[in-house]
Write a structure and sequence with these properties.
This protein is mainly α and about 280 residues long. It is built from 13 helices and no strands.
């Protein structure tokens, strides 16, 4: 009887798991697969509603290739500066007494609406903002801070820093302190310990943080308009223009298709390397 009961319970368990998967599969179908299919479908029509593959050929013209390079370049810069700020910050957080409180204070700004934070920086970087007031006080004088590459990258890094710090912080927290002690006991310098022990063992957190920053940074459009004043043109800006201004939904959807492909490739490459290491 026990054997039969055990067998029946093992048979029911997979069915229960499959039942609980239904909401997840429905969510993925309705809000992931269906929008992607719709975007691919829209990319096959021109501005007059005629079926065509010309949008894909038009994407490979110099204008859009330059825009694609610009998008990847700015996404790389935003990710690199976010990493340079976030890794030391995450490492110091793990050494502080009230680290959970400090981590909460860092993450808290990400709960605020993105548009509100962007408008706040417009006030700070404006001609009569706090940044220019400080520059005047120290004798430098007013500068054109807003509508520059610097302001765009600065604001973007500020917005993405919490998404970079959190996975790195978790990776450093899981690091075995005895490995660091062993490295020092063997005569390794602090830099060697970081380069040969700490960083390699926390590389998965770095990858997750870079993925969480680089992928959304590829499609930024609101910050480019409000902070950079359209001086920075990215693929996200082009998508917005095609959908809302020129009404060329086909070309906008085509750009979105290539963005989705690029993001998927980045996620696949990062995931494969992570699984390989594990």
């Amino acid at each position: 009887m026990r054997t039969a009961d055990t067998y029946s319970s093992h048979a029911v368990a997979p069915r229960a798991r499959n039942f609980y998967l239904i909401p997840y599969l429905l969510w993925m179908l309705l809000f992931v697969a269906a929008p992607i299919i719709l975007i691919v479908y829209d990319s096959l029509f021109d501005v007059d509603g005629k079926f065509t593959f010309a949008n894909y050929g038009h994407f490979f013209t110099p204008v859009y290739m330059k825009m694609t390079f610009s998008s990847f370049w700015y996404a790389f810069l935003i990710t690199a500066f976010s990493l340079l700020v976030s890794y030391p910050a995450a490492y110091l957080l793990t050494r502080t007494k009230h680290k959970q409180l400090w981590l909460l204070l860092i993450i808290l700004p990400s709960w605020i609406n993105l548009l509100l934070k962007t408008y706040a920086f417009i006030g700070l970087f404006g001609t009569y903002g706090a940044a220019n007031a400080i520059l005047e006080t120290i004798g430098i004088g007013k500068q054109q801070i807003l509508f520059t590459d610097f302001s765009f990258i600065f604001v973007s890094v500020y917005i993405f820093i919490p998404f970079m710090i959190l996975p790195i912080f978790n990776a450093i927290e899981e690091l075995n302190p005895s490995l660091i002690d062993a490295s020092r006991d063997l005569g390794a310098s602090p830099w060697t310990t970081f380069r040969r022990v700490i960083f390699p063992l926390t590389i998965n957190g770095v990858k997750s943080g870079c993925q969480a920053v680089f992928i959304p940074a590829l499609s930024l459009f609101m910050i480019t308009r409000l902070i950079a004043g359209n001086r920075v043109i990215t693929l996200g800006t082009a998508i917005e223009q095609h959908f809302l201004v020129t009404q060329d939904w086909g070309m906008g959807a085509t750009i979105a298709v290539f963005l989705i492909i690029a993001m998927a490739i980045i996620m696949i490459l990062t995931g494969n390397r992570t699984r390989g290491r594990r």
